[in-house]
Design goal:
It contains 13 helices and 14 strands. By secondary structure, the chain is an alpha/beta fold. Strands 3, 4, 5, 10, 11, 12, 13 and 14 form an eight-stranded mixed sheet that branches. Strands 6-9-7-8 form a four-stranded mixed sheet, with no helix packed on it. Strands 1-2 form a two-stranded antiparallel ribbon. InterPro entries: FkbM_mtfrase, SAM-dependent_MTase, SAM-dependent_MTases_sf.
């Protein structure tokens, strides 16, 4: 166990080191905007452009040229900041003051490759100010979900299925803490072991309790194969196309394979899949949410972003949804037909989701959330 923990810590440090290296390559305009203690924005060109600096100069720029963009201390720039150039101090800075997230290479069209997002203790990106700019990406659906947290029943759960790097889970968990809703129980389901480690590390660093489950989620429990190459490749280790791995026994909801616990221990078990694996195919454990119905219930909010697997995941959550609290919300991403074709996924996603949700008594269709992505919303126990 000690060796496993040591390996996990080493892997986490490597993540931070890699992200720090990427940050050096980011364009100054793409670095997060921060404010000095007086509330004046700190110039990013002055801090990060070693060759040219700020072309306007301190007198004409109007932004702060005296404080470091990273640690907010006067007297040096970000490029000269000890938190930026020293691994140990950088890690200490991250875990003490910020939440950090980054977009992997699969998100080139949505943000700059290697761009680093620094989150403050309120769970909001520091480059955004004011209520209208709280969330840098998918701000509408995250703002919508943040507004629901105060309405959830006591001790209900928030399940993020397809957690990726924890974009939604971490933001909502920190926000829940800031509004005094630490009773909400957060679950993050993600098939990539490395991403699970990242979510757990950042959650622990920020004092929020997130149960991270390293598995895929579908209709039944089985082993599945994650394809990573060819035409059907959706997004590298973020959007994986699942196929059944052989003709193994299917176990319906409520049944655990061998009584296996799918809790926090999955984050440090190197026997599971790892997103650093270079094989073209990897076997990954898939569960139905109903296999954890006693842990999850009562459900307050279910967030689904599983790259075309939403309908099947909902089929495997029948008991969870029937035992959910009131109010309860289900928010699922849907792709347009052209996106399904481009990613090699069968179309009709919205219709499939609707067909499943109509089976669950009490749930009614709400208004869609449209920003960078479109999410359909189903509600139970809310006033119409």
């Amino acid at each position: 166990m000690e060796m496993a923990e040591k390996d996990a810590v080493t892997a986490n440090y490597k993540i931070l080191s890699d992200l720090r290296a990427k940050r050096k390559k980011a364009h100054p305009l793409k670095m997060p905007l921060r404010l000095n203690p007086a509330g004046i924005p700190i110039c990013r060109f002055h801090n990060y452009d070693a060759k040219k600096g700020c072309m306007k100069g301190a007198d004409q720029c109007g932004l702060d040229h005296s404080h470091c963009h990273i640690c907010l201390v006067e007297g040096h720039t970000a490029l000269g900041c000890p938190y930026f150039n020293d691994d140990e101090q950088w890690k200490q800075f991250l875990t003490t003051y910020t939440l950090l997230n980054t977009r992997p290479p699969d998100y080139q069209k949505k943000t700059v490759l290697g761009d680093v997002i620094v989150w403050d203790t309120a769970g909001l990106p520091l480059e955004c100010r004011g209520d209208e700019g709280q969330l840098r990406r998918c701000r509408k659906h995250k703002r919508f979900e943040a507004g629901l947290l105060s309405r959830l029943a006591p001790n209900s759960s928030f399940c993020d299925v397809g957690a990726h790097f924890g974009d939604t889970t971490l933001t909502m968990a920190v926000h829940a803490k800031s509004i005094g809703r630490e009773d909400i129980r957060f679950f993050a389901f993600e098939p990539s072991l490395l991403k699970c480690r990242w979510i757990k590390m950042v959650a622990d660093a920020n004092g929020v309790n997130v149960r991270v489950v390293n598995c895929a989620v579908g209709e039944v429990e089985r082993m599945v194969v994650a394809e990573r190459g060819g035409k059907r490749k959706a997004i590298f280790d973020g959007s994986m196309i699942y196929e059944e791995a052989g003709e193994g026994e299917e176990k319906g909801g409520g049944v655990r394979v061998g009584g296996e616990d799918v809790g926090e221990s999955d984050c440090t078990d190197d026997s599971e899949s790892d997103c650093s694996n270079d094989d073209d195919e990897r076997k990954i454990r898939m569960i139905a949410l109903d296999s954890m119905v006693d842990d999850i219930s009562p459900l307050g909010l279910l967030h689904l972003d599983v790259e075309g697997w939403e309908a099947k995941s909902l089929k495997g959550a029948s008991d969870v949804l029937r035992r959910s609290s009131e109010p309860c919300f289900v928010i699922a991403e849907v792709w347009e037909e052209k996106d399904c074709a481009r990613r090699g996924v069968e179309g009709g996603m919205e219709e499939k989701i609707c067909n499943v949700m109509e089976l669950y008594q009490g749930f009614k269709r709400g208004d869609d959330i449209k920003d960078q992505e479109r999410n359909v919303v189903w509600e139970k126990g809310t006033q119409t």
